[in-house]
Amino acid sequence: MVLLSQQNFGALLVLFSAAGFSTLAIFIKLAFAAGANTLTILTMRFALASLCLWMLLKLLHISPKVKIKTALKLGLMGAVGYGSMSLLFAASLQYLPASLSEMLLFTYPTLVSILSFLIGDEQFSWQKGLALAICFLGLFFILGVSLTGISHLGIILGLGSAIIYSCYIIIGKRVLQNVHPLVATTYVSTAAAFAFTIYSSTTNQLILTLPFQGWLALLGTASFGTIVGILGFFAGLNKIGAANASIISTAEPVLTVLLSVLVLGEQLTFLQGLGGLLVVASILLLQLCTEDKKMDNRTLNVASCQTSDQ
Q1: Tens of pLDDT along 238-276?
Q2: pTM for the model
Q3: Closest C-alpha among 19, 39, 17, 31 to residue 83
Q4: What is residue 151's DSSP assignment?
Q5: Are the C-beta atoms of 116 and 122 separated by less than 8 Å?
Q6: Average pLDDT, the chain
Q7: Which residue, 115, 123, 209, 215, has most beta carbons within 10 Å?
Q8: CA separation (Å) from 18 to 155, 215, 242?
Q9: Count of helices and strands (H, E) across the chain
Q10: Interacting residues of 249 by C-beta distance below 8 A, sequence separation 6+
Q11: Inter-CA distances, 167 with 70, 82, 233, 299, Å
């Protein structure tokens, strides 16, 4: 039996997260088609997810108790961080094509890498920069971005979602060091649920009279697009770092395009296929560089031990 290294296991967890998040756009489109609005989708996404997560904690006998200070931080991450990012991203879709909104959001791996370097959390290497460049080019091909007739407000909203998400990831790495990933996911989802429930209720934008297929779509956003996505990302974040996790997460739009072809019957172009290969190549490059660095470190450690023995 082959045992995965912590780096490879963390990468697989983040890929699992990307697979979960990749279903979100599909389920949201299905929910829109069933008559739901943006605030209803966001409210029910986090409300259903938090309900399932609390039951899962009880079923697995995992204590949800954390320090009050940690609970407040997780609450702010959910209500202010993840909630604001979700709202800004959804708002940008009203002014921009979905492809450009997605492209703007996925500037966050670059922002996370730069922020991690500036605050001293991680080192920035030329290999990591090359992986980011290849990845960004791949995303451009995948999303087929058109820059004609661009709304400045949409650009601001899209970039705002990326900036908030980048800060959320950096803060999350520090907060999650001593918190079980499932507990953290539960607190974040619950806080976001409370925030969106209050906002959608007070503005009379919460729609509960949806057909059965609409509720199935909302359940999909909660289970795959929230629980699997956030839990997998949190679990992998502690193992491979914020910058690496962000780069690997760019597999999400690749998987979203594939799901759009399989589920919604959309067409896959040659450039989208090429873009998908470039994103996969950037992830493989990042993993190979990390493994080579670990091998070099082990070699140096062995050499230093041999020198000290002599």
Answers
A1: 788 877 887 788 787 778 777 777 776 766 677 767 776
A2: 0.73
A3: 39
A4: -
A5: yes
A6: 80
A7: 115
A8: 24, 23, 14
A9: 15, 0
A10: 14, 17, 18, 21, 109, 233
A11: 17, 10, 15, 35
